[in-house]
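Researcher: Next entry: Chaperone protein DnaJ (Rhodococcus erythropolis).
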Amino acid sequence: MSQREWIEKDFYKELGVSSTATADEIKKAYRKLARDLHPDANPDDAKAEERFKSVSEAHAVLSDPDKRKEYDEARRLFASGGFGPRAQGGGGFNPGAGGFDINDLFGGGAGGQDSGLGDIFGGLFNRGGAGQRTAAPNRPRRGKDLETETTLAFREAALGVTVPLRLTSPMSCTTCHGSGAKPGTSPRVCPHCNGTGVVSRNQGAFGFSEPCDDCRGTGSIIDSPCEDCHGSGVTNRTRTITVRVPAGVSDGQKIRLKGKGEAGLRGAPAGDLFVNIRVKPDNVFGRNGDDLTLTVPVSYGELVLGTTLSVPTLDGRVGVKVPAGTVDGRILRVRGRGIPKRPEGAGDLLVTVKVSVPQKLDDPAIEALKTYLEAEKASGFDPRAGWAGA
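Model: Predicted structure:
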């Protein structure tokens, strides 16, 4: 939709309110219309969909005090013929002067960014996202970011691993190398717009800029399109990417591969690839941040008398000294034998000792245990002393 069409459109009429309506009146009118016309409430109703877009566009302008002021001023000046230069020495209204630029209202604001109202509804009605002009579908643009997922064993994630990923996605055409032109030929600069992709025209006192019809807004013309990609510079291909997963990656973490996403259209840069990491739980190890956790079964006698345990690590085994009189559930720390983290080194290995009670004893063991319990009692040891008021 051109700038002139925006100005000529009566947003107040779309919402059924007067030009002097308050912000609350505008909000109330919009909510009622949006509820009645929403696509979810009117499936497969093209008229309702178009009406919904119209009232949403109207609300987007009238609900913003600054945009509403600019819109009202633009309509007033347009109705009075105040746009454009007057006779030499006259004081006609000049868009862009005095702090008001009509382009700010309809997109093409500061920096040339596509921020106009025409981009608001792209996601809802599949007309392309913000920053993409629907009037020029073949304009060179950056490729989309892609996402994929890979599942790693616990130790692979902890130590790091290289994994291959097989993807099918739009890629730069290998025949024309992304130019869109048949091999041996090249796109030429559009003579109508001089490569800008935009042409200007005047209607009375008004000047308008629109996508060039000759090149469809691309700024170039392909006389002999590539037969494989039909001039887009992009084809679907299956590829295998080798991904180096760094040591210490955790479940749910994302790895970004710059430039490995969807190919850009007509030679524009490719998007990025984001790899979601899923980590399988391990039968032996657990994880707490950069610390590796481990529970080791021990006997009662080993805790009472003390011992040295041989426990596994990610890259071998290590001896862990259990002091005499260690209580059940105590955590013993082994420095630097946890999850690798560069360049700081590695986390720690946290070993929890857990008493394992025998389910069956032979007669000599039973007699020995009875003798021990009698000696324990004679020594004055009471495991429940002071417990529950005892």
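Model: Note for the record: The CA atoms of residues 278 and 327 lie 36 Å apart.
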